[in-house]
Design a protein that fits this description.
The protein has three domains: 215 residues, P-loop containing nucleotide triphosphate hydrolases (Rossmann fold); 114 residues, no CATH class; 258 residues, no CATH class. It is built from 22 helices and 20 strands. A hairpin with a 3-residue loop joins strand 1 and strand 2. The chain has 661 residues and is of the alpha/beta class. The protein has a five-stranded parallel sheet. The chain has a four-stranded antiparallel sheet with strand order 13-14-20-15.
Length: 661
């Protein structure tokens, strides 16, 4: 029986440089995972070779992500946008990867109902009187409704704004049958009663904006539109998108755009159970605020304060919107109910609006739909962490008051030797460091073997032996779902870090036993800002987020002399970001893995001759165990960093910060 307190980990760690992640079983579009069809054969499956020139720019990636959300939730999607912005091609490209069939039906005024839904045809194979005189031919829509073993089908209803009224009436019945899991009666067209499997049929309606230079396009009846998730796409490509896409065509830009982590939306491995919803802290309060938001959003539309210049009438439906929000939360809840709920509101409400001014008005209402936990009570409790956890307490407790040996015994489950504090750390230096925002920590010398040991034993065996040696520092992949969500449970770095070490893409870590002064500010949740410190002023940075590794490294080198001088330390000491394994050990101790952001580390990851930097720590993807990597020149709103002063003289490889720009 499934543990109701389960907190699962997404199937992959988002990588800004790989916005589309493909496995043999699934494809993820900016984190939204869709299953591949078991049977990808047939003439209706688009061929991959036709999309070798597809450009995955920011516009296309966000469009495919939004399409994937509706597909993953079995929700019919209606996209209104200009011609040639890539609506149909984006869908076909997705289906070529997924092995899904595309059943394309153009609903313009010339579309015969029989071509769409099917009709009886003379049986050209009739040989005897017993053979039927007529056979029934499947239409372009009905062929997508009929279930076939192992196949997933997408029905594309193009130019729905130019459809005949009788064709639209038929759609009402089909959409209602899909939503309610009921069969649809196609007897009138000779296809009998068809039981539609909503998991294997997706419907997307496309149209150009009514009027606005598009001849023959009419607004859709609101009674039909409410049955779809409505996305208002631009009437033409944004100027920047056109420019970047053209440059990609000419080979001046990569075809795949590096995408900020904030644009990713991670599918859960398993949907929440209904009873788990009740255990999310603050859920009742946030639903009360949602009710106020929904009423306010409807008033904005009614009073023509938003959407006034959109020729397609729409509303925020009292029945459909809450049901869709519920489906979204169950599929994408990431441990932060505020972030997840507000993302859902932007998807189902703000996506209906055209102008940025209108979206800004709605955003003001969206921001108020939040749960503010009582002081000293974690927002992330509930089914993920039933009570205030040790990790939260660790971020609030001055660890310098605990003897280092006791602190590391709690983390590692084993005694470690603590070296004497270096003689340069006088009481005055210690006070200076604290004033600058640093706290003293000893990073212990651990027996982690060598790269040859790793190659000989393999990653799993090597990590299992480390766990036997240090029982509190557990192999991440051995943790249960509940333990993975409880960030007070100690964890080593995930297997894939050690695989890269084994393969030589990351240098084998060194833990010689070293005293450091590390910045003590908490690692913050997404959307917040790091506390400003004297060190931040010396680096000339207003915040630690949205700073590339290269810029951070340059700022550290700029501030290094001033930091050491003000602390009263020798100028020969090193000031740097933590190495990844150092970060992991301290994150287990300090609770840095409990928030949904990353921090840069000093560790290099080499990929195909290119130098990247390792980032660590997203709570949804493993917390202290989590690693990813990105180009050092990229800046992201969810990646911050912190400094450490290395107080023990050690030999380490130096790097030129300017070489990473």
């Amino acid at each position: 029986m499934e543990d109701k307190n389960m907190a699962e980990r997404p199937m992959f760690t988002p990588n800004p440089e790989e916005p589309i992640a493909e496995t043999p079983e699934a494809v993820s579009y900016l984190g939204v995972r869709l299953p591949k069809a078991q049977n990808a054969e047939g003439i209706f499956v688009p061929r991959k070779k036709n999309f070798t020139d597809f450009i995955y720019d920011e516009f296309a990636l966000k469009l495919q992500r939004d399409i994937a959300v509706a597909f993953s939730l079995d929700q019919p999607l209606f996209i209104e946008g200009g011609t040639s912005i890539g609506k149909t091609r984006a869908i076909r490209e997705m289906c070529s990867r997924l092995g899904w069939e595309v059943h394309y039906a153009n609903l313009n005024y010339g579309a015969d109902e029989g071509k769409l839904m099917g009709k009886p045809m003379p049986n050209t194979q009739r040989r005897t009187p017993e053979d039927p005189e007529y056979v029934y031919w499947l239409g372009k829509i009905s062929s997508g409704l009929v279930p076939e073993e192992g196949k997933i089908k997408v029905i594309v209803l193009d130019e729905i704004g130019a459809a005949m009224p009788e064709n639209l009436i038929t759609l009402h019945e089909i959409l209602d049958a899909m939503k309610n899991g009921e069969p649809v009666d196609l007897t009138e067209w000779g296809n009998g009663i068809v039981q539609i499997d909503p998991k294997r049929v997706r419907i997307v309606a496309l149209t150009n904006p009514p009027g606005k230079g598009y001849f023959g396009r009419k607004p859709i009846d609101p009674a039909l539109l409410r049955r779809f998730v409505y996305k208002k796409a631009p009437s033409e490509l944004p100027t920047q998108t056109f420019s970047e896409r053209t440059q990609s065509m000419f080979g001046l830009r990569p075809k795949v755009t590096e995408t900020p982590l904030k644009e990713f939306l991670l599918s859960r491995d398993m949907r929440l159970l209904p009873e788990q919803l009740q255990e999310i802290p603050g859920i009742k309060g946030i639903l009360d605020k949602y009710a106020e938001f929904h009423k306010g959003a409807k008033e904005l539309v009614k009073n023509r304060q938003v959407g006034a210049d959109q020729p397609q009438p729409f509303t925020f439906d009292d029945m459909e919107e809450p049901r869709r929000i519920l489906d979204f939360i169950m599929a994408f809840y990431n441990g932060d109910i505020n972030e997840t709920f507000q993302t859902a509101l932007r998807y189902y409400y703000a996506n209906k609006l055209d102008s940025e001014v209108d979206k800004a008005k709605l955003e003001e209402l969206i921001r108020h739909v939040e749960y503010i936990p009582p002081q000293n009570v974690s927002q992330r409790r509930g089914f993920e962490r039933g009570t205030t956890t040790l990790t939260e307490a660790r971020q609030e407790t001055p660890e310098a008051l605990m003897p280092e040996g006791d602190a590391w015994r709690k983390v590692l489950g084993e005694n470690v030797e603590i070296a004497p504090l270096p003689s340069v750390v006088t009481p005055e230096v210690r006070r200076n460091l604290e004033r600058l925002g640093f706290e003293l920590r000893f990073i212990p010398k651990l027996d982690i073997g060598t790269v040859d040991d790793l190659k000989k034993k393999g990653v799993v065996r090597h990590l299992d032996e480390l766990q036997e040696r240090y029982p509190g520092w557990r192999r991440y992949e051995s943790l249960s779902d509940t333990e993975r969500g409880d960030h007070s449970v100690g964890r080593n770095l995930e297997d894939r870090y050690w695989r890269q070490v084994k393969d030589g893409d990351i240098d084998h870590p060194q833990l010689p036993g070293v005293w450091v002064a590390v910045e003590s500010m908490p690692k913050l949740s997404y959307g917040k800002s790091y506390k400003k410190t004297p060190v931040s002023d010396k680096m000339g940075l207003s915040d630690r987020f949205n700073v590339s590794w290269s810029d951070a490294q340059a700022a550290i080198q700029k501030a290094k002399r001033g930091i050491l001088s003000e602390a009263g330390l020798p100028s020969s000491l090193d000031v740097r970001m933590l190495e990844t394994l150092e970060w992991n050990l301290l994150a287990n101790r300090e609770g840095w893995g409990a928030t949904n952001t990353y921090e840069w580390t000093n560790t290099e990851y080499r990929r195909d001759g290119e130098s990247c930097r390792v980032l660590a720590g997203h709570s949804v993807s493993g917390g202290a165990a989590n690693v990813g990597w990105a180009r050092p020149g990229g800046s992201f709103v969810s990646i911050g960093f912190r400094l450490a002063v290395v107080l023990s003289p050690i030999k380490r490889k130096q790097c030129d910060p300017l070489s990473y720009f």
